[in-house]
Predict the 3D structure of the following.
Amino acid sequence: MGEILSRLGRLFVQSTPTVIFVFLLLIILDRLFFRRLDEVLKEREEATRGALARARKETATAEAKWQEYESAFQAARQEVYRQREIDRREGLAERENSLEKSREQTESWLKDARGKLSAQVESAKKELNRASQALALEITEVILGDGGPAERDRESRVSR
């Protein structure tokens, strides 16, 4: 067993420079490569977190603006509906006024026409009354035969 231990001792002594070299290489790589790599990865992670935070903040801002625009759009839509309703009511009122004026004008025309017609009826009644009285007088004269002006007038018409 002594020989194994002496061989192990020699191997340990022979491997010591390699272990030191590996240890030095590890320290050099850590300082030159791994620390810088860790710094870059940390910066990248912080940038990613910052970008995510900004994205969340901008998303929240965009959501708030969208809600604002949506409420403004809804208010504008309500205003349009309200204005349409006002215009519709005004149109109905104008139509109603127009119809009322037309009715009044038509009634006025009918009243005038009825007045003219009743005047014409009265005039026709008077004319018929005069004509019937003249005809009655003429008939009376013919029947009684006194030869008055109506008979002469009739004779002159017959002779012509």
